[in-house]
């Protein structure tokens, strides 16, 4: 069927004489898959042998082959990595640009742990396997292919379109910061590393699709208790490890005030029908009354939902003492927080201080690679465009917003007050989501509709 469709579509294009250079849907999907395979084969991991610059060169070649001028695609080396910015100038220079955002680096993967080599792309049983298949080399190549398809078709954007890829999103985010600073005058950012659809586990059919309009702020706080110490045979009334343990117990038992934002109100309301009955009922009750104790108890008891209704802070690292036969002179612990949009890390740190209520415990913000950011606005132009594009490609599939618990490049744009939205068209079963994990994979059936979706969305927001 696919070959027949490609032949028929090609014949139609040649007969009409319009947009003769535009590739068929099948050819575009194949091109995106092949580009993704080449990118996956490059080990773009921080450290010795980092091949992120080679991924940038690969992406630049694809953009130039697709109609971008060589001078309009810039690769900037940064330490052992690099970032890429490609510019397609619109006809109206007074309009702020639309930015398509992604990243080229991936999380480390040890071949000995995988069934397949993580940096040898393989297509099996309808899935693309390899590190980056889900996060996010395939998403990146789908976006590149959609954009170059538009150029080949003769489309002329009114608003300038910028496509950029950071080179250390999974680690220090230094390139992410630099890109956001350069593009802080953007009108809107479409982050292809966020959002996405869910496939039904039994049928494999699309259940719903979410766009990401907010993410929680990442923060690390270090608790420290010091003591003169001494010989372990002569215990003192105050022990640094004991005092730290008391503080950690208080933190572990504390629950931040549950809350709603305009985005999470809609997100929880629309998500409720897709949850198990008890969770769905609790979500509806919480939206109706954010102080509902029974609903809060149900939602906080489940790891998948506790983070959706407020800030969370948990101990993640503990270190104390210096010898088996000595009283501890120092004990430290790391508290990792995911902060609900609208709150500053300093305010959360102060709240933790009040919870611990012990002057012998000092608290310091030791966060790296993070910045506080609020939710992006519920922009009608974006919501209309995203709903229309998804509706044409996946008719009848519910579309609603979501808030991410992890960090992405969107936070750097939001810190400059630029609206950024996760907008990936990839659909996947929850049981197949192995981002950052072993045997990462994504169904290749998501490629062709993803390209169509991006072309509709990019056109709608740049015309």
From TrEMBL:
InterPro entries: Bact_exopeptidase_dim_dom, Pept_M20A, Peptidase_M20, Peptidase_M20_dimer
Signal sequence, renumbered to the chain: 1-20
Domain of life per record: Bacteria
SUPFAM superfamilies per the UniProt record, alphabetical: Bacterial exopeptidase dimerisation domain, Zn-dependent exopeptidases
Chaperone in keyword set: no
Stretches assigned to the Peptidase M20 dimerisation domain: 214-358
Key words of the record: Hydrolase, Metal-binding, Protease, Signal, Zinc
NCBIfam families: PRK09133.1
Cited PANTHER family: N-FATTY-ACYL-AMINO ACID SYNTHASE/HYDROLASE PM20D1 (PTHR45962), N-FATTY-ACYL-AMINO ACID SYNTHASE_HYDROLASE PM20D1 (PTHR45962:SF1)
UniProt similarity note: Belongs to the peptidase M20A family.
Protein name (Swiss-Prot/TrEMBL): Peptidase M20
Species this protein is from: Sphingomonas glacialis
């Amino acid at each position: 069927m696919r070959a027949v469709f490609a032949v028929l579509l090609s014949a139609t294009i040649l007969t009409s004489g319009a947009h003769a250079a535009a590739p068929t849907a099948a050819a575009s999907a194949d091109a995106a898959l092949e580009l993704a395979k080449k990118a996956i084969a490059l080990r773009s991991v921080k450290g010795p042998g980092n091949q992120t610059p080679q991924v940038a060169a690969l992406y630049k070649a694809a953009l130039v082959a697709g109609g971008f001028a060589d001078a309009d695609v810039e690769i900037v080396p940064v330490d052992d990595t690099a970032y890429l910015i490609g510019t397609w100038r619109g006809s109206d220079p007074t309009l702020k640009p639309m930015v398509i955002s992604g990243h080229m680096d991936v999380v480390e993967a040890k071949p000995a742990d995988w069934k397949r080599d993580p940096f040898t792309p393989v297509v099996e049983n309808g899935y693309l396997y390899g590190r980056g298949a889900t996060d996010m080399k395939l998403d990146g190549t789908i976006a590149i292919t959609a954009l170059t398809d538009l150029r080949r078709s003769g489309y002329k954007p009114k608003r300038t379109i910028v496509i950029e890829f950071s080179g250390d999103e999974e680690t220090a985010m230094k390139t992410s910061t630099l890109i956001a600073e350069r593009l802080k005058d953007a009108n809107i950012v479409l982050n292809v590393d966020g959002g996405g659809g869910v496939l039904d586990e039994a049928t494999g059919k699309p259940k719903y699709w979410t766009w990401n309009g907010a993410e929680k702020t990442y923060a690390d706080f270090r608790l420290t208790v010091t003591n003169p110490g001494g010989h372990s045979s002569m215990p003192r009334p105050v022990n640094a490890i004991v005092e730290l343990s008391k503080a950690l117990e208080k933190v572990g038992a504390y629950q931040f005030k549950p809350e709603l934002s305009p985005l999470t109100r809609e997100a929880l309301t629309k998500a409720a029908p897709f949850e198990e009955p008890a969770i769905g009922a609790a979500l509806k009750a919480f939206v109706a009354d954010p102080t509902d104790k029974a609903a809060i108890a149900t939602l906080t008891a489940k790891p998948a939902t506790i983070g959706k209704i407020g800030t969370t802070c948990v101990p993640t690292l503990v270190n104390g003492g210096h010898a088996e036969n000595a009283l501890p002179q120092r004990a430290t612990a790391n508290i990792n927080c995911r902060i609900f949009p609208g709150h500053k890390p300093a305010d959360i740190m102060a709240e933790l201080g009040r919870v611990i209520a012990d002057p012998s415990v000092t608290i310091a913000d030791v966060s790296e690679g993070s910045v506080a950011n609020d939710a992006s606005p519920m922009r009608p132009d974006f919501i209309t465009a995203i709903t229309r594009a998804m509706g044409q490609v996946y008719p009848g599939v519910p579309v609603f917003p979501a808030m991410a618990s992890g960090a992405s490049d969107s936070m750097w744009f939001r810190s400059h007050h630029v609206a950024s939205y996760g907008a990936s068209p990839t659909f996947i079963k929850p049981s197949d989501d192995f981002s950052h994990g072993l045997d990462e994979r994504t169904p290749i059936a998501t490629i062709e509709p993803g390209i169509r979706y991006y072309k509709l969305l990019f056109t709608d927001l740049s015309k």
